[in-house]
Automatic annotation (TrEMBL):
SUPFAM superfamilies: alpha/beta-Hydrolases. It comes from marine sediment metagenome. The lineage of its organism: unclassified sequences, metagenomes, ecological metagenomes. Pfam families: Hydrolase_4. Residues 58-161 form the Serine aminopeptidase S33 domain. This is Serine aminopeptidase S33 domain-containing protein. InterPro entries: AB_hydrolase_fold, Hydrolase_4.
Amino acid sequence: MVKKLLIDNPAVSNVVFYPRKILIPDEKDPNIRVLKLQIDKNILIGGFFYLNNPNFPTILMFHGNGEIAADYQYFLNFFFECNVNLAVVDFRGYGFSSGEPYYTSLITDALPIYNEFYKWMIKNSISDSLFILGRSLGSICTSEIGSHNPESLRGIIFESGFASIYD
């Protein structure tokens, strides 16, 4: 467990994070799979895998603040036109993920989420060509994963990322 910093104080978290909760949906569409990634004994990270073709590369996306993984069902065509699958995961406390969001959890959860998702891909016979995308707040997670340079990672995409938490 990483020591919580001043930036993890609830007074700060309540201003920084805008989580929205949803119930775990029933899986009805065979091309949309509910992700339940157990990254710690008490932390379940939720998300969705949107299947275009199991042989296509996959983008694992860490969304922006105020968004949840379920929001991306409305943007699938943009990704599918690029011949990729899309997986979007939530942060702690967002969507149906457990826990409460705080800054350092964005960093400490990133690599375990990546590793658990990669195992899920292999188990479900999805091509192991994996890219990560960090949008806004999600760029923190993407930067952390990239800093570890996992062998399975094919590329990193930043959208509306930021260079400093102090700016």
